[in-house]
Every structure is written in C-alpha cells, then in structure tokens.
Amino acid sequence: MDGAMSVGIEIDDHGLARITLRRGEAGNAIDLTMARGLLDAARACAHRAVRAVLLTGEGRSFCVGGDLREFSRLSGEALEKHLTEVTDALHDALRTFAASDAPVVAAVQGAVAGAGIGLAAAADVTLAADDATFTAAYTGIGYSPDAGVSWFLPRLIGPKRALDLLLTNRRIPAAEAADIGLVSRVVTADRLAAEAARTAEALRRGPTAAFGATRRLVAAGLTSDLGRHLDREARALVTAAASDAGREGVAAFLGKRTPDFTHASRGT
User: Fold this and answer.
1) Catalytic annotation, residues
2) To which protein family does this belong (predicted)?
3) pTM for the whole structure
C-alpha cells in the first residue's frame, strides 16, 4: 500500500482539506507508508490554498500508534534505520502542519494511543467521540515517546499529569481527556463527523492569516518572556489590522453584517 492509499487527502475548491487515515483494519497504526503519506498530505496542504484541515481516521479507532507488527520484523541496525525513517517523515509532517496558517481540526474515536495522541494533541481543535480512550502506551513496550507527545502533553495538561500518563500508561476516557485539556470537547459518537465538519468549515471561512498568527503567538508564548511576547503581539496585530481580512472584519462589524474573509485578496 502506498502513501496515497493509506492516507487520503481531498482539497475542495474552497480550501478545506480533508485528510483521512485509511488503515482502519489495523487501527490506523502508523507504518512507514502511512508516515510518508501524512508528510505528502501536509506538503500538499502547504502548496495549495488550504484554509483549514480536517483530520480523521477510518474504522473503529482514530490511531493506535506505531505499527508494532512492522517494527517487530526488524532488529538491530535495520530497526534503528526503519524507526528513524518513520519518525523523520511523521515529524516533518507535524512541522509542516504547524508552520501553516491553516488551523487543523482532528476528530478522534475509539482507541487513541502512542503517536495517535501526538496527532490529536497537535491539532488546534480536537473533538473526541464519547467512546474514545487515550493511552500513552510507549513505556508499556519499553519505548519512549515520539510524534511530539512529550512536547504537547506537558503544555496541554501540565508536566505532572503528562508524566502520570506517560509513565503509568493509564487509559483515560474522553470525558477525563476533556477535563484535563487533552481534547477540546466531547460529542456523542454519532455526532462526531458532523460536528468536526461543521467546525472545520467555520474555520475555513475565517481569517486564515490571523489564525496562523494566533497559532504562532500561542506556541511562542509558552517559552517567551512577557516583554518580548508583548512586542510580538503588537507586530502581529498591526499586520493583521492592515490586511484585507482585517479591514473586512472591521467593516463588517461596523456594518452589522457577517464578514466575508474568503474573498479578501490579501492576509487570508
């Protein structure tokens, strides 16, 4: 199976990208082909006029982590080389999504484990079905985290809670994941697809460049001192206000109408 078959991507004429993990029969476990498929999808989004991304997984589970069956067939230097290739592709995909202005919405269901948690945590808005469960899983098999899990978790839920999940591999339900900040909100399983699509579509209609600036500000603010961050905020605000999207937003507010950011020629 090539990357295009294990990871589907559709980009509509309005700039909404739908990325689907297509190894449902394997719990959407990430093998080398899927990792490369995710990177191809991320690059496709970067090279097209994508305004929002919706990430989903086929089957009962969103993503159970790395493909241990694939890994178990290798050992020694061959395993090291293989895992390096998997993580290089997967991590480059995460970097590419993070560098984009387009916000990412993830819809997760069933088992979310290992690198699956990394994909869910990397999204800007993560919706979980009420049947979803989350397990770090890495140390349970003698591994350490990848897919940004050790970076995202402490920032989302705090270092103490992150270590609890990473060291004990405690399985937590969707409601607890929402309570601690791992996911944005929980919806019933039968509403997950519709709510995720509605959320992604609402973001697609928004001011994409302002979304990108906001994403970068939030990420930078976690490691920046206040003074430097206030300067960064001021520069970003000036740029946003001077853009077509900024002018359209203010005009719409004063005119008591809904802004049309999708037709602004610059700054979207």
Assistant:
1) 91, 146
2) Belongs to the enoyl-CoA hydratase/isomerase family.
3) 0.93
